[in-house]
TrEMBL record:
InterPro entries: FAD-oxidoreductase/Apoptosis, FAD/NAD-bd_sf, FAD/NAD-binding_dom, FAD/NAD-linked_Rdtase_dimer_sf, Reductase_C
GO MF, one annotated term: oxidoreductase activity, acting on NAD(P)H
Assigned keywords, A-Z: FAD, Flavoprotein, Oxidoreductase
Pfam family, one: Pyr_redox_2
Residue intervals of the Reductase C-terminal domain: 317-400
Domain of life: Bacteria
Name of this chain's protein: Oxidoreductase
SUPFAM superfamilies: FAD/NAD(P)-binding domain, FAD/NAD-linked reductases, dimerisation (C-terminal) domain
Start and end residues of each FAD/NAD(P)-binding domain: 2-289
GO cellular component entries: cytoplasm
Cofactor: FAD
Length: 400
């Protein structure tokens, strides 16, 4: 049993295999040299220096998991059931791919000094002194990572400007009606948000931005942090014959098996068809890297016992800590769903519900964790809501 990628999904797969009684040999191979660690704290406590690291509390030795760190897997030859690594081939009987995602870079500026990404512990370690020095920082991208980084940088006393190509933050995730109040959080925390703008150049100490109105703006920047998305880390699979989509995600089936025999894929690197939502989901969030591995482990064991596989059809969940708020999202919404507000967008705490044919399919709760907990259960059960009652934030969320 070989697991490639020693992030959340890879570690959880190895642990779940042992928890579910797998007694065979398990080898976990990771490219990074560090003890496997959790990523969410990298844009929060680790960045601010209030936590030293975020290593997983897992005793690999006690679980009899062989951990090979600092070794990138460079290829997969399914006909030989072998992986290629920097230190030679590694054979497998069953393989789990959990290589996660890698940040999208801003073309042409990767090598400019002072330009940073935020994906790894090393990235966070490079950014900590930048924050401590209270530099002027330009963040490119007003997505989840950009907002969290801006929050931390402001907390550290930096001057922060966020440049976003779309006309609003989180344009790829949420509708304009929902992001409207969120855009105000930037100014409230002293962050300038420039939307509809493109970075046209990065020079030492300056970022040049074209907002389409008049002359380009030159923003002072001791450091630039690029947070414009991530793509599945699957380039190493080129030539293996594994099925991927145009964006690079491994297209797993409903049991998280890939197109290759005895090869599974889980976490940020793989999409899967959701019967619940009627479409293929690619989830780049922590909870998916926790839940998916349990299904993979169960299916590895089931395959060994000649039993049928179980399906993976979660209600996706994630959270974000930004601008002093705790935002939590569960489910999956579509443009055609009906939006229902619980609490006004101008209030300190509010929840947005998405209804499809009267049933709750998704919600975003801002500082209303009880709504999230209750709503998640209602989504799971496919419950219909009474819209009038559901819109009243004083009434607990429950089925009609
Ligand atoms: P990864 O964590 O990316 O792990 C994959 C591992 O595989 C990496 O260590 C990588 O080095 C290794 N690898 C890649 N290629 C190879 C190779 N060829 N050979 C060997 N090893 C390889 N989600 C939330 O829900 N809430 C949050 O608040 C939140 N905050 C986040 C903050 C940051 C800064 C980041 C980066 C992510 C955050 N996320 C959050 C997302 C969450 O951390 C990811 O969804 C989760 O880490 C995915 O786990 P994974 O194991 O699939 O991938």
């Amino acid at each position: 049993m070989v697991v490639v990628g020693a992030g959340m999904a890879g570690v959880q797969t190895a642990v779940a295999l042992r928890e579910q009684g797998f007694t065979g040999r398990i080898t976990l191979i990771g490219a990074e040299p560090h003890q496997p660690y959790d990523r969410p704290p990298l844009s929060k406590a680790v960045l601010l220096g209030t936590a030293e690291g975020s290593a997983f509390d897992v005793d690999f030795e006690a679980l009899d998991i062989e951990l090979i760190l600092g070794r990138a897997v460079t290829g997969l030859r399914p006909a030989d059931r072998e992986l290629d690594t920097e230190a030679g081939p590694v054979p497998y009987d069953t393989l789990v791919i959990a290589t996660g995602a890698e940040p999208v870079t801003l073309p042409g500026v990767e090598a400019v000094p002072g330009v940073h990404l935020l994906r790894t512990l090393d990235d966070a370690a490079r950014l900590r002194p930048v924050l401590a020095a209270r530099h002027d920082i330009v963040v490119v991208g007003a997505g989840w990572i950009g907002a969290e980084f801006a929050t931390a940088a402001r907390a550290a006393g930096c001057a922060v400007t966020v440049v976003e190509a779309a006309d609003r933050p989180l344009a790829g995730s949420l509708p304009a009606e929902v992001t409207a109040p969120m855009a105000g959080w930037y100014a409230e925390h002293g962050v300038e948000l420039i939307t509809g703008a493109r970075v046209t150049g990065v020079e030492p100490g300056t970022v040049v931005v074209d907002a389409g109105t008049g002359a380009p703006r030159r923003l002072p920047a001791d450091a630039v942090v690029v947070g414009i998305g991530a793509r599945p880390a699957t380039r190493w699979l080129a030539g293996s014959g594994i099925a991927t989509d145009p964006g690079g995600a491994i297209t797993a089936d409903e049991s998280l098996r890939t197109s290759l025999p005895d090869v599974h894929a889980v976490g940020d690197c793989a999409s899967f068809p959701s019967a619940r939502y009627g479409r293929r989901l690619l989830v780049h969030h922590w909870d998916n890297a926790l839940q998916g591995p349990r299904t993979v482990a169960a299916n590895v064991i089931a395959a060994g016992a000649g039993e049928p596989p179980v399906s993976y059809d979660p209600v996706p969940y994630f959270w974000s800590e930004q601008f002093g708020r705790f935002a939590q999202y569960a489910g999956d919404h579509a443009d055609a769903d009906t939006i229902l507000w619980r609490g006004g967008p101008g209030e300190a705490a509010w929840t947005v519900l998405w209804l499809r044919d009267g049933a709750l399919v998704a919600l975003l709760a801002v500082d209303r964790p009880r709504d999230l907990a209750q709503g998640r259960k209602l989504i799971l059960s496919g419950a219909r809501l009474d819209a009038r009652r559901a819109a009243d934030p004083a009434v607990p969320l429950k089925a009609a």
